[in-house]
Design a protein that fits this description.
Length: 260
């Protein structure tokens, strides 16, 4: 396939009701524009109405811009595999609780079994101890999308070689919103297998929040280690690195940011 180089110019125009982006060819005419990859496969095109970018036969809308009633573009849609996620965390060492209820402060341990001089909270089995913290839903978060809470921890003892050694964490949480009475808490758990001594392990809870999440919401939490239900109880401390939530980024930027 041969390609003929053509010069294009972009001109944006908008009014109260019909904002558009026009694509002009070098002869000042507007027509359908197509884009190809290195292997001459069509990737997307601009239809004749000059507003909608569509894919060329692969069944995926790569970018879709709709008419709006102001000068800003309010709707961007990207493919699911193009989604961007970020992680916001609380260090295990800073989780708070009343005196007598906090997990012990212990050293993180290196691969040789030596203390590192770096300390965090060590959650033990069979203890009524917990840590609480609060994380704000960040201003680059995509509103209405569930977040994914998780813990990063280290098992300091050698796990059993024959039967899976398991730990179970319990998460009590609620969301606080400006001007709204605090909602009742929800309790969820995750059970995880410790396979390697001194290794970092990530245990993910079920996603929470969904369509109700807004920027600026405060994710209020208490984290506990409770008795395992499957396999054999891991009998050693679990040193907490961090508690975190994965959240999807609003790639177009959130309009709510101007109010924060």
């Amino acid at each position: 396939m041969a390609f003929t180089p053509t010069t294009f110019a972009l001109l944006s125009a908008h009014s109260a009701n019909t904002p558009k982006v026009y694509v002009y060819k070098s002869d000042d005419t507007i027509s359908q524009v197509e884009a190809y990859n290195y292997f001459y496969a069509k990737r997307f095109q601009i239809e004749a109405d000059d507003q909608v970018w569509v894919s060329a036969g692969d069944g995926v809308v790569h970018l879709h811009i709709t008419n709006v009633t102001s000068s800003e573009v309010e709707t961007y849609r990207t493919t699911p595999y193009g989604s961007v996620w970020r992680d916001t965390n609380i260090g295990g060492a800073v989780l708070g609780a009343p005196i007598g209820q906090q997990p012990d402060v212990e050293e993180l341990v290196d691969s040789e079994g030596d203390g590192t001089g770096i300390y965090s909270r060590a959650f033990s089995t069979g203890q009524d101890e917990y840590g609480s913290g609060i994380v704000e839903i960040q201003h680059d978060a995509k509103e209405g999308i569930a977040v994914h809470p998780h813990v990063h921890y280290q098992g300091v003892g050698l796990p059993n070689a024959g039967v899976a050694d398991t730990v179970q964490f319990e998460l009590t949480y609620t969301f606080a919103r400006e001007g709204v009475p605090l909602a009742p808490v929800t309790i969820i758990t995750v059970e995880d297998i410790v396979e390697n001594q001194y290794a970092k392990v990530t245990a993910g809870f079920a996603s929470v929040g969904g369509v109700s999440i807004l920027i600026g919401d405060q994710f209020c939490l208490t984290l506990k280690r409770i008795d395992a239900e499957g396999g054999r109880e891991y009998l050693f401390d679990t040193n907490l690195f961090t508690f975190g939530i994965h959240y999807q980024v609003d790639l177009a930027g959130s309009r709510t940011m101007v109010y924060k």
